[in-house]
Amino acid sequence: MNKLIYALTFLSLLHPSFVHSEDMNLIADNRVEWHHKKQQIVAIGNAVATRGDMQVKADKMSANYKKNSTTNKNQITNVHASGNVKMKSERADAYGNTLDYDLEKDIVILRGKPAKIKTANETITADDNITYYPQQQKAIALGNVKADNNKDQIFGDKMIAFFEQSSDNAQNMEMKQVEIYGNVKIVNGETTVWADRGIYNPQTALVKLYDNIIIEQNGNRLQGDYAQSDLNKGISKILSGKTSKQRVTGVFKEKKQNKQSSTTEK
Questions:
Q1: Residue 242: its pLDDT value, please?
Q2: Which residues, other chains included, contact 168 with Cβ-Cβ below 8 Å and sequence gap of 6+?
Q3: Which of 213, 216, 227, 254 has the fewest CB atoms lying closer than 10 Å?
Q4: C-alpha span between 266 and 263 (Å, rounded)
Q5: What is the domain count for the chain?
């Protein structure tokens, strides 16, 4: 998969309510309620929470806070957003029905039908949830997961994606590795690969696949326990597992050639 380019967008609202707490801004079109006893803030109506390069927007948002013993100021500890949730940062944009952001642990849990993380070049969706770790540059997606960059499509029950800074531009990110588990399927042009689990390098388009492998391309099929596939070159190599007695098998279809009629000039 190609380079990831992220954009940070800030929305200016007309006549917003505004509440400030250390490292967190909350604004809303309708109102912001401060519940002192519960140590909770509730923002209603096109609510927006901003902290550093992270921005979360939703129909309704609540945030819990506590007193920082060092600064003696209120500090937001977690945020819950519901309804038309959108999250934007320099690393990724995310969309879903609900979002829970633990600021202390730096964990974002996104739920939706589907939950989605989107970049300029790639989209990851999951029916259950996507857990995103901004500082670790890692995302874990669960439930009918699909990753698509308009060239390759990856499917699985669980997917763990790792990101890193681009070598061309430090402000951009690249997806460096994807681990896929359960009902793995990779589609690249005319090549389709099935396996129990796999490791995919998006930058090189190399795939390592394990257990119950099936590779199909142009009607040809290979089966085995371990495979390596270069999706760019269209070359796949399949091997039998070291501890398995299963043999590598292959079925190859001969391409039909069109017969051309010849004419003889008189």
A1: 57
A2: 3
A3: 254
A4: 10
A5: 1
Say if CB 211 and CB 182 are below 8 A apart.
no
CB 82 within 8 A of CB 60: yes
pLDDT of residue 2: 27
Cβ neighbour number for residue 261 with a 10 Å cutoff: 4
Read off the DSSP letter of residue 257. Answer: P
- What pLDDT does 243 receive? 53
Q: Beta partners for 214?
A: 194, 223
Q: Taking a C-beta distance cutoff of 8 angstroms, is the pair 246, 224 a contact?
A: yes
97 lies in a domain?
yes
Q: Give the integer Cα–Cα distance in Å for 198 and 209.
A: 4
- Distances from the Cα of 28 to the Cα of 18, 86, 206, angstroms: 7, 14, 46
Question: What is the predicted pLDDT for the residue at 228?
Answer: 85
CA distances (Å), origin 72, targets 41, 48, 67, 68: 18, 25, 6, 5
Residue burial 60-90, b: 16+ Cβ < 10 Å; e: rest: bbbbebeeeeeeeebbbbebbbbeebbbbbe
pTM of the model: 0.73
What is the distance between the alpha carbons of residues 145 and 200, in angstroms, rounded to a whole number? 14
Nearest-5° Cα angle at 55, 137 to 86: 90
Is residue 7 a part of any domain in this protein?
yes
For the chain, which ranges sit under pLDDT 50?
1-22, 258-266
CATH of the domain at 33: 2.60.450.10
Q: What are phi and psi of 44, to 5 degrees?
A: -125, 130
The residues with which 35 forms a beta bridge, in sequence order, are 40
Q: What is the pLDDT of residue 188?
A: 79
